[in-house]
Amino acid sequence: MNFTELSAYWETILPNLIHESNRISVICESLSRLGIKVEEFKDGLKVYPGNPKPTLLNTHDDHRVAMSLALIGSRVGGIQINDPGCVSKTCPQYFALLESLGLNIIQY
After folding, report:
1. How far is the C-alpha of 12 from the C-alpha of 43, rounded, in Å?
2. Average pLDDT of the residues in 20-43
3. Which of residues 15 and 83 earns the better pLDDT score?
4. What span, in angstroms and rounded, lies between the C-alpha atoms of 80 and 106?
5. Which residues pair with 47 in a beta bridge?
6. CA–CA dist 54, 79 (Å, integer)
7. DSSP-assigned letters across all residues of 48-71
8. Model-level pTM greater than 0.85?
9. What is the spatial distance between Cα 35 and Cα 51, in angstroms, rounded to a whole number?
């Protein structure tokens, strides 16, 4: 995955409600760990071009965060996600579905 042409600002439609985690903050943290420059705002974030690097990412026990990070991992080798099982809250078969699409999911 190459973020060299990506520069985006996402603004939330609803107030930044905290469910399992503060999703804006967690995604910013994850992108930073990937080596991607990101700016966090109260109502969104701005992502700058860059090339993600392999790293361990924290789901913060948030099923939507885990699913999002797994998609990044589908394009960037060496991504590890802690607590991927939290997806069972809404889609227990999520990683099996990714495997059915040909993705190599390694469970530790």
Report:
1. 6
2. 92
3. 83
4. 9
5. 8, 38
6. 5
7. --------EEE-TT-HHHHHHHHH
8. no
9. 7
The separation between CA 56 and the C-alpha centre of its own chain, rounded to angstroms, equals 11
Q: What is the pLDDT of residues 59-74, one digit of tens each?
A: 999 999 999 999 999 8
Residue at token pair 């985006």: 8
* Tokens read off for 4: 């060299």
Handedness of CA 3, 32, 65, 53 (dihedral sign): positive
DSSP label at 12? -
How would DSSP label each residue in 66-102?
A: HHHHHHHHTTSTT-EEE-GGGGGGT-TTHHHHHHHTT
Name the nearest CA neighbour of 76 among 34, 33, 108: 34
Q: Which two tokens stand for residue 5?
A: 């042409």
Mean pLDDT of the chain: 84
Per-residue pLDDT, averaged over 25-34, amounts to 96
SS3 label, residue 27: helix
